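Course assignment 3, question 2. Fill in each field.
Student: A.L.
Task: Predict the tertiary structure for the chain below.
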Amino acid sequence: MSKPVLILHGPNLNLLGTRQPEIYGSTTLAEVEAMCRRRAEKRGLTIAFHQSNSETEIVEWIQGGINGAAGIIINPAAFTHTSVAILDALNMVKAPIIELHISNPHKREGFRHHSYVTYAATALICGLGVNGYPIAVEAMADMLAAKPA
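Answer field:
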């Protein structure tokens, strides 16, 4: 069995569907997971889908992915702007990393314009709403297919 693609979510994303729907929409995290699983299945990928409000737990998932993941798609949420620990963990990952945001942080408050995660990311997807998730799965599948054996 091939290594899974980790899809990781930071704080408050467990409240998708009810949290600021004018910014994040009305789709729940469970619905996002179903979208990702359908797209991954079509592309022959397996995924491991996680959400945590704990920076420690996210760092531990990333560390587990150093040798155990084909790639990482991460929406670090508020940790985007604050977490050197997540950046340090991602910097140890040799697999492709896609940073993903539902909204466009560059159209929001100034403090959201800086991302620590971007320093480690292979690619960045933002501002496409939850539709960014299946696009990220597609992009990851393409990156993995293009990777030399």
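Instructor remarks: The helical segments are 21-24, 29-42, 55-68, 84-90, 132-146. The longest helix spans residues 132-146.
Grade: pending
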